[in-house]
């Protein structure tokens, strides 16, 4: 296990014009950490991971494993284990032969190899599956074979690129718990790539949210969820209302904004928010942090229900408040509420947060 550092790493592909696929990325990953690159398709996650693996060299910047500079070292000299979306297993070989592949290349002796393959299959809970053919396994089992194959070489870093995308929803949830358990038990530093924010939050110690090749925010799941750095992160992680409201007064840590009903509310803001009275602030508030009440209740923000959708766990509503659409996810909806009704919104001030544009 080893710490991994990316220092001002950029990657430009020839013939891709001037835009960088990865643009000046700084990330420090601690030894043993489960670290995730999260962002929409095309934001540069795979390119970043491939530079850590050595399949691409950065156009500029440095990559270190511990104190070692590995920026221009070939993949087979980095001790990384890779797991891909499509498993990339050898279909004509047995499970054990697949797992042993990296050991064979490294010229590990037969007896030692057999012992380590058994140990790796045990780690992924596939004891006794060694002689099976790959096509006799389910998708989830195949992905665990791919994980065993990566772990058997005792890599310094485990790199996983959307490994659960080909599994159905239920299996995906089971397997993500498994991957996290295996990573923690093996102690290997893991870098995980996904576009699925729920998956990232469930699995990771920390997450880097990326967009257009740039890191937008790095933090623990709770931090990113409750204190998104900017409007992009607020909207990408879960759902969020990002309301543009007039600034009335400021301190270093709060911004008082005017609400559509003419009242004012002081909202927590990041240090160095730089906002001044007279400007507009973007205030993020999540749909599940808005309560429903009657339109006439004192302190409630009055609006009109324009959409209502029952999903089982919650009811999703869209409420028009002075021309702005506010999303609400309510566990308890007052009986009889329907589209067109006037309703009151109770905003939880503790859960509101000023974000950068
Ligand atoms: N080999 C390549 N040649 C040219 N452009 C590439 C290559 N690989 C990726 N890109 C471009 O770099 C950007 C980032 O891609 P990628 O890292 O695959 O994103 P992600 O994994 O987040 O979906 C995209 O615009 C993609 O088209
Ligand atoms: Mg990708």
UniProtKB/TrEMBL annotation:
Lineage top rank: taxon: Bacteria
Protein name per UniProt: ABC transporter ATP-binding protein
Gene Ontology, cellular component aspect: ATP-binding cassette (ABC) transporter complex
Domain ABC transporter: start-end pairs: 4-237
Keyword ATP-binding (UniProt): yes
GO-annotated molecular function: ABC-type transporter activity; ATP binding; ATP hydrolysis activity
Pfam families found in the cross-reference section: ABC_tran, TOBE_2
Alphabetized UniProt keyword annotations: ATP-binding, Nucleotide-binding, Transport
């Amino acid at each position: 296990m080893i710490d991994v550092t990316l220092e001002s790493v950029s990657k430009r592909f020839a013939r891709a014009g001037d835009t960088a696929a990865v643009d000046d990325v700084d990330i420090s990953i601690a030894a043993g950490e489960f670290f995730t690159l999260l962002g929409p398709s095309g934001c540069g996650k795979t390119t970043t991971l491939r530079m850590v693996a050595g399949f691409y060299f950065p156009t500029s910047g440095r990559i270190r494993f511990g104190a070692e500079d590995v920026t221009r070292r070939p993949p087979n000299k980095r001790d990384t284990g890779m797991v891909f979306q499509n498993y990339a297993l050898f279909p004509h070989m047995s499970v054990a032969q697949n797992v042993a592949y990296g050991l064979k290349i490294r010229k590990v002796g037969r007896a030692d190899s057999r012992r380590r393959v058994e140990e790796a299959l045990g780690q992924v809970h596939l004891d006794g599956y060694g002689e099976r053919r790959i096509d006799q396994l389910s998708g989830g089992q195949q992905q665990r074979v791919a994980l065993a194959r990566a772990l058997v070489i005792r890599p310094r870093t485990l790199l996983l690129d959307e490994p659960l995308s080909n599994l159905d929803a239920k299996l995906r949830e089971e397997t993500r718990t498994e991957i996290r358990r295996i990573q923690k038990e093996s102690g290997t530093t893991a870098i995980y790539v996904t576009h699925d924010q729920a998956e990232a939050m469930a699995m990771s110690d920390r997450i880097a949210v990326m967009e257009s090749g740039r890191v937008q925010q790095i933090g623990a799941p709770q931090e990113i969820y409750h204190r998104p750095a900017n409007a992009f992160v607020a909207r990408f992680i879960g759902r969020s209302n990002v309301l543009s409201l007039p600034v009335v007064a400021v301190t270093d840590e709060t911004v008082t904004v005017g609400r559509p009903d003419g009242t004012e509310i002081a909202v927590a803001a990041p240090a160095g928010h730089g906002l001044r009275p007279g400007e507009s602030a973007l205030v993020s508030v999540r749909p599940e942090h808005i309560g429903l009440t009657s339109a006439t209740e004192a302190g409630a923000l009055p609006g009109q229900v324009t959409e209502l959708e029952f999903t089982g766990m919650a009811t999703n509503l869209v409420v028009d408040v002075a021309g702005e659409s506010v999303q609400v996810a309510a566990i308890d909806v007052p009986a009889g509420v329907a589209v067109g009704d006037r309703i009151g919104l109770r905003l939880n001030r503790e859960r509101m947060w000023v974000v950068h544009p």
